[in-house]
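Re: [ENG-882] Designed sequences occasionally contain unexpected residues at chain ends

Forwarding the minimal case from QA. Structure tokens:
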């Protein structure tokens, strides 16, 4: 049975392994290695950190990173969603992203953004299914292993928060 839980420091070893599986694909992040818990913890919002489990197995995780420390952007965050390699292609990512959207709105986040490598078509489809729209391509936004990479910039604007 699939359940969602708030991510805590005790989940980090499994969460880190899933993150490293994503890194190993070469199409999930510019990161080349997973950080220590302390560094990851500092860079992500305290709220909106979710794991999805089936029994004792963590199938995936999602979290938000603030896009800026300026107060006008307090309701804008960047999405991270990572799925265990054994659970990919089974709808877990979509369930997790839907839950993250719900939690973001519960915590007054009005805009979510995602930067996705164009080659990661599964992630693009999941974001589209959860109400994200394509804003454009950020060409040669960063180098990875000596090669310039593009990212697709996607955004989801809440219809509940920040609509007045």
């Amino acid at each position: 049975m699939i359940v969602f839980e708030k991510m805590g420091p005790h989940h980090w070893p499994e969460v880190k392994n899933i993150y490293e599986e994503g890194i190993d694909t070469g199409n999930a992040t510019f990161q080349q290695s997973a950080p220590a818990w302390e560094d990851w913890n500092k860079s992500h919002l305290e709220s909106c950190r979710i794991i999805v489990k089936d029994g004792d197995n963590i199938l995936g995780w999602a979290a938000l990173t603030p896009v800026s420390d300026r107060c006008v952007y307090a309701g804008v965050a960047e999405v991270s969603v990572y799925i265990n390699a054994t659970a990919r292609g089974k709808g877990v990512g979509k369930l997790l992203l839907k839950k993250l959207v719900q939690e973001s709105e519960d915590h007054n986040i009005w805009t979510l953004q995602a930067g996705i490598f164009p080659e990661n078509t599964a992630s693009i489809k999941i974001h589209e299914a959860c109400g994200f729209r394509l804003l454009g391509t950020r060409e040669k936004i960063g180098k990875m292993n000596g090669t310039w990479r593009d990212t697709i910039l996607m955004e989801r604007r809440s219809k509940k928060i920040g609509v007045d």
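QA comment: On inspection the terminal residues look reasonable. The radius of gyration is 15 Å. Proposing we downgrade this to a documentation issue.
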